[in-house]
Amino acid sequence: QVQLVESGGGLVQPGGSLRLSCEASGSIFSINNMGWYRQAPGKQRELVATITSGGSTNYADSVKGRFTISRGNAKNTVYLQMNSLKPEDTAVYYCNAIYLANLYWGQGTQVVVSS
Q1: Which of 37, 11, 14 is nearest to 112 (CA)?
Q2: How far apart are CA 17 and CA 84, in angstroms?
Q3: Which pLDDT tens digit goes with each residue over 83-105?
Q4: Which of 38, 40, 61, 103 gets the highest tally of CB atoms within 10 A of its CB?
Q5: What residues have CB less than 8 Å from 87, skipping those under 6 apart?
Q6: CA distances (Å), 11 to each of 4, 15, 31, 87, 90, in order?
Q7: Who contacts 56 (Cβ-Cβ below 8 Å, separation ≥6)?
Q8: Chain-centroid distance, C-alpha 82
Q9: C-beta pairs of 29-34 under 8 Å, 24+ apart in sequence
Q10: Cα(first)–Cα(last) distance of the chain, in Å?
């Protein structure tokens, strides 16, 4: 009953920036927690950043100071501002959300940082 759609991925040069967006839709009212994960080729999916409905954030050490997670006023939209991108940031980025104790995932959006 919750669908997540990511957008904003693409190809960017090292040092560049991208902003990812995730919009939740379906038979929902509000979502407690949302976040971003990523999976690089040959690696397991890893946490990038999370944000609660109250605005508390958590970041992976590898992106802290470069990435910023935020939510829209409706609380069912989450953004990831990615600055100072590095080649090692190349991955498929997945949006997730927790609603009524269930975990939902988007289809992912590809981010490629060329070197």
Answers
A1: 11
A2: 6
A3: 999 999 999 999 999 988 899 99
A4: 38
A5: 14, 113, 114, 115
A6: 22, 12, 30, 11, 9
A7: none
A8: 10
A9: 30/75, 30/76, 31/2, 31/75, 31/76, 31/97, 31/98, 31/99, 32/98, 32/99, 33/97, 33/98, 34/71, 34/78, 34/95, 34/96, 34/97, 34/98
A10: 40
Count CB neighbours of 12 within 10 A: 17
Q: Does residue 31 surpass a pLDDT of 90?
A: no
The residue behind tokens 């600055």 is 83
Residue position matching structure tokens 């927790």: 98
Residues 6+ apart with CB under 8 A from 68: 80, 81, 83
pLDDT class for 78, splitting at 50, 70, 90? very high
Q: According to the 3-state scheme, what is the secondary structure of 42-77?
A: CCCCEEEEEEECCCCEEECCCCCCCEEEEECCCCCE
